[in-house]
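ENTRY TYPE: paired fold submission
RECORD: A
CONTENT: sequence, then structure tokens
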Amino acid sequence: MYENRPNTDMEKSAAPFFRITVPPTHFVPRKIQIFPQHHLKNTHKTHKIDIRIAHCDMGDETLCFIPATSHNRKGEWIMNFLVETSARHVHVTQEDLETLFGKGYELTKKKDLSQPGQFACNEKVTIVGPKKEMSASILGPVRPETQIELSLTDARSIGVTAPVRESGDIAGSGACKLVGPAGEVELKEGVIAAKRHIHATPEDAEKLGVKDKDVVSVKVDTDGRSLVFGDVIVRVSPKYALAMHIDTDESNAAGCAGTVYGEIVK
């Protein structure tokens, strides 16, 4: 059952929040993810809503998010997409995970993230730099290379130089030490400030008029701190879900709070 619930954070984009109620008598696998597009019939002349179920958990009800809305501007449909704030976090290899937490250790899921297959973990590590240290959560699953993503403010506060890079581009990046309950890992490289980016499926990229590796500008309308982010890299893959990711410095600069949408500007 779809239930329309007003949400003041989303009034500007005319994107109501929808609640999906799952009757307890229905069998639903405990953790399922559904990523095909689900369109809500909408005949409004100035706005369109693109509904997709992102997460579904066993229980009386679960919530879906709205990754995209569209509005008509002078006869042209402009697509808006969700802008998510990514706090500092760590990706680890299986080898480093076992050094930090013990032989044979496996990550435990805390919650799913918007990108298919990605999840926040219960595990945390301490990031140690020349000046000080700070705690950060691990994101799963494990990766081929250990990578630490910090805001530039975080990096400066612990005394580490973090170049602005795309995820996975860690050659010659910042060094630090990771400390876990079972051991430590000295990293000669791996600390970056993630380049702001948009995840998009090929279908979404076509709607947005972009292609993989395009660099675009994105306007974010917020209360009193609206701005345009330049140098936004577009990443296209059928494995993605539509969303833009910015770090905490960028989010604070734009005054992002609650549900925030952006649009590509020429």
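RECORD: B
CONTENT: sequence, then structure tokens
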Amino acid sequence: MLWPEKQKIQMFAAEWRAATSLSGVYALRMLGMFLVLPVLALHAHKVAQADLKQVGMVMAAHGLTQALLQLPLGMLSDKIGRKKVIYLGMSVFALGQLLWRRPTRWKRWFARAPCRVRAR
């Protein structure tokens, strides 16, 4: 035999439940993101009567803020607590919604980016 036999590693029931629930949450998050965002971009193009460059930049704000803020906010939640970071994110989300109320061409991009902070 070329390869040594692999040992089977059994998971406890609690580990199995934790792994499957975490996998389910992640799968639903990815499913929602990759099903909704492409359709949302096309819908925003029709409703907002914006050119595709503007719509693309608004949609890119999601990924950009996620990439820039996920690790720092995770470390901050380890230091000061998860609930405080959630309250901070919801406050920033409310600020973004207030900015979105009267959007101009570039304010749309800056108003949408804080909303992604809340989604972290």
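NOTES ON RECORD B: The mean pLDDT is 78. DSSP finds four helices and no strands in the chain.
STATUS: closed
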